Amino acid sequence: MSATESPEMQRKIYAAYRDYFDKAERKRRWNVAEDIPWDKCNNAIDPAIADVVQTFCMIELFLPDYLAKQIPDVRANKGRAWMLANWGYEESKHSMVLEEWLRRSGHRTEKQIEDFSEAVTDREWNLKYHNSTAAVIYTMMQELATQLNYRNLRRVAGGKDPALDKILELVSIDEAAHAQFFRNLTSIYLEEDRAGTLEQFRLVANTFGMPANDLLADGRERVEAVKSLKIFDEQVYFAEVYMPILQRLGLTKADLRPKKVFRAA
Q1: What is d(CA 258, CA 202) in angstroms, rounded to the nearest whole number?
Q2: Separation CA 72–CA 130 (nearest Å)
Q3: Has residue 107 been placed in a domain?
Q4: Cβ(201)–Cβ(137) under 8 Å?
Q5: Domains in the chain: how many in total?
Q6: From CA 231, how far away is CA 243, in angstroms rounded?
Q7: Residues spanned by the domain of 123
Q8: 19-49, pLDDT tens digit by residue?
């Protein structure tokens, strides 16, 4: 179900997108072939790190579903639709650069990459939330969580592979920008319809989960591998996703408690 935005709200959303796009053009654009020190890949890095890189790469490979399932609901909203197109471009680079590292580092053969890419296409991502406000809120949380995934994997890798270190730095910066954009949209929705937006916020916060569990055949094992390296878990979600988002939006836990309805006797 698509939210009905006023013309003024649509103008605000498009202005937020243009601000995002213009900053990206000036400060963030990078080139897969030229901006990574590919000659410094380290094939002796811990195989557990390569396993996590493969997990993240596989999640990125669902990009056609992410776009095909979301754009139809917002196609009449230029800011939302154009942002999804731009987001798709940036996420495609993330998929390519992670796959290229697996190949150039020698941690995966061409056949192994083909096999896991094919396995991804055997499954399909579907919308979890059929309300476009909820979709914005979920994406805000998921993009911040994804940034933390890449940031924390970079910490675990410890700079032992300069190519991977640069990749994770660039991708993490992109994901932070995505999270900021969708946080700006959430602020706009709060201004337009605070009660309705808080209702959707409660729903998403109580049901949030990263996609690996449901999308990948061995998703539970891959999620546990991420947790075992202390890259992302429930504690990280609460302390570095949920609470900071509340603070940046000027919300409190009280705002997210369901409102009691009092009826006359």
Answers
A1: 8
A2: 12
A3: yes
A4: yes
A5: 1
A6: 18
A7: 38-252
A8: 999 999 999 999 999 999 999 999 999 999 9
